[in-house]
Amino acid sequence: MTRSNSKITCVWQRLQAVILAGGLSLGSTAMAQPETRPADNVAMNPQASSNMSGMGSMSRMMRPDAVPPTGVVGGMHPPEGVLMPVFSYMNMEMDGNRTGTQSLSTSNVLSQYPIAPLSMSMNMAMVGLMYGVTDEISVMAMLPYTRKTMKHQTRMGQTFKTRAQGFGDLKIIGGYDIYKSDGQVLELSLGLSLPTGSIDETDTTPAGPDQLLPYPMQLGSGTYDLLPGVTYTGQNADWSWGAQLAAMIRMGENDAGYTLGDVYSATVWGARRWNDQFSSSLRVVGDIVENIDGSDARLNPGMVPTADPTLRGGQFLSIGIGVNYLVPGSGVLAGTRLGIEGVIPVYQDLDGPQLERDYAVSFAIRRAF
Questions:
Q1: 145 with 125: CB under 8 angstroms?
Q2: DSSP characters for 75-108?
Q3: Which mean pLDDT values do the consecutive 10-residue runs of the chain (369 residues) have?
Q4: What is the rounded distance in angstroms from the CA atom of residue 61 to the CA atom of residue 54?
Q5: Backbone dihedral region of 237: left (phi > 0), alpha (psi from -120 to 50 degrees) or beta?
């Protein structure tokens, strides 16, 4: 735990670096316009999944833009005694390799490694549950089930796929609203990610059956990870806005001898309420992902870039466009929220060769009881 103590002291410095990388500024003032307020984070980081933002009363929650864009995780404020289950589904696609900001051909990668990754698809279904302990304190738990597929090519021209699926790491997060006024909320959150996801996934490769898969194909971190965050949300008659700073701080080393890189994220969004059922949103998100500390001795980093712990980091800037729908009426489905968001990267600077992100699409269903 000595590693975690020194890292926690510089979390906010790292978060400010994320904002600068994303073209944002900690010193900017919040505006009553769609593009300004803090929100939750996440974009494509697999860590990732669905977010919620409310104003602390059921009346304010009963509008389509009372929750953040679907790709944002956390950030809703259910009143005391309100239970809010969430189901979300996310698909992220990666295709082609990159080092720095430059794309690489497959032949270029194969000149350095016997095997080159070609593409990767990640599909994640997540069940979440949020509860309002008081009007200011909420707790949330999220458990993902992930399916990953990666396509490769060897120097001999052979192509093959590897697959892994199963439950990922369970996340438990508590939020405390330290400020509420005129439709605005400032929330501090702190959570813990539990190592329930596997780091020992295997599959058949040209080297034989039951081969250990590289780092990005594993389902969990293998460590207890700290999840600090701060979220601001605001609302007026027709607009809502928000922003969030968040991080995933890895605590210690897993049983395989390595620690996944820390993740620092910042996002801002604005949403327009068009009527009592529909709203649309625009979001900007910046992420910094650090390289892996240590290594898994069972992997050969010279065989394929995905097995090299020094080629997992990068900086990302992405744009998200989303739509929310609130089911009207008084029937069984009344009050159910449906949301969808697509996220496209506009800037990627990777420690490569590394697969570059193409896009992510997330869908969520939410309901308050």
A1: yes
A2: ---PPTT-EEEEEEEEEEEEEEEEEETEEE-HHH
A3: 47 46 36 32 36 42 84 81 94 97 96 97 96 94 97 96 98 94 91 98 95 97 97 92 96 97 97 95 98 97 97 98 92 90 97 96 92
A4: 6
A5: alpha
